[in-house]
Amino acid sequence: MGYDIRPVTAGEWRELKELRLAALSDPAASIAFLTTYAQASAYPDERWQENAQASESGHGVVTYAAVAADGDWAGMATVLLETADQPKAKVVGFYVRPEHRRTGVAAELLQAAVARATDGPAGAESVFLSVHEQNVRAQRLYEAQGFVRTGETEEDATGTIWEYVRKRTS
Predict the structure, then answer these.
(1) 93 closest CA partner among 145, 122, 52
(2) Contact 50, 119 (CB under 8 A)
(3) pTM of the entire structure?
């Protein structure tokens, strides 16, 4: 199955909202996301519109959608771009619907996010992400895409969250 991996546009806020709420409904959501379904479902439409507009503008944050040939939104990845003396980026909100897993779309989404973060002379030198110690599937994906643990961790009510990094290759 082919996928169109592209930034979310302002007019696609409804699709973004639906996909994010689906992600937060996933049984693994409690260890994968900082926001709960109850919190996100209470957001007003204006917040979803602002998120989609921010993605389209490409300043500071870009959310990539993986859209299947049949129009189904299969997954998403959001890149937060920090600009300072040494730009860095963080991948957050990464999700692929269960029926699209093991198709290669997760790797495509992650590659698009990393490319966005590191492209160009002002691109980030490092791309970071966080993953829960129990989320072995995500750990395998990230490691296969060149991410390594930094040694930094955080504790939350569900366990340990590991920080991963991938250095810019060029």
Answers:
(1) 52
(2) no
(3) 0.89
